[in-house]
Specification:
about 240 residues; 7-stranded parallel sheet; about 45% helix; 7 strands; alpha/beta
Length: about 240
Amino acid sequence: MSGIEGKVVAITGASSGIGEATALLLAERGAKIVLGARRPERLEALAARIEESGGEAVWARTDVTRREDMSGLVKLARDRYGKLDVLVSNAGIGLISRLDDLRVEDWEEMIDVNLKGVLYGIAEALPVFREQGFGHFVNTVSTAGLRIVPLQSVYAGTKNAVRTISEGLRQEAGDSLRVTVVSPGAVRTDFAERMDPAVKDQIDKMMEIALSPDAVARAIAFAIQQPDGVDVSDIVVRPTAQG
């Protein structure tokens, strides 16, 4: 199925930022949205907002580090709408710091959310896509994986791991499934909230040039709306002022 109208799209990390913007845009264009994130009060409010605007949305509290939660999100899509067309794996965290700081628990959390969370999504959605004979993975990575800089070693590593896995998945997928990687640059989100204060100051300065999450949502929509047989594999979206 080409276009967006009528497609069932599950989105992780949907309660704010890029995930929220993507949900609103796709719902406006006629998709049925399945919202997943760890903050149920935000998901409930977002689903209500979509429905008040004439769209369709359901939600489930989803921690992508728990495979059973990802299973539940995919099951919700199928139970409510009978299928799943697109899985947008957008949940991610960036607890960046110097390697010398040895923030090993932060490293593990980024691996769990940014990498294993995507793998759990693949594990749950791929059999469904195979059974249906169609499906589309959209994985949000980062320009941090394209230009490696200090403080972002582990974060960039998790994003590049997803990039590599996505390319392997694309090659294994055959002619009925699609795989898209979207690499945002600086985006105005709450990305820096849990960072060390000194690092957060650096990131906050980047917000002066940052994109609105809507810009990334439009890129995701562009990939989804392509005709059958057209796979937009890799999209980079960043501010013109970003180096």
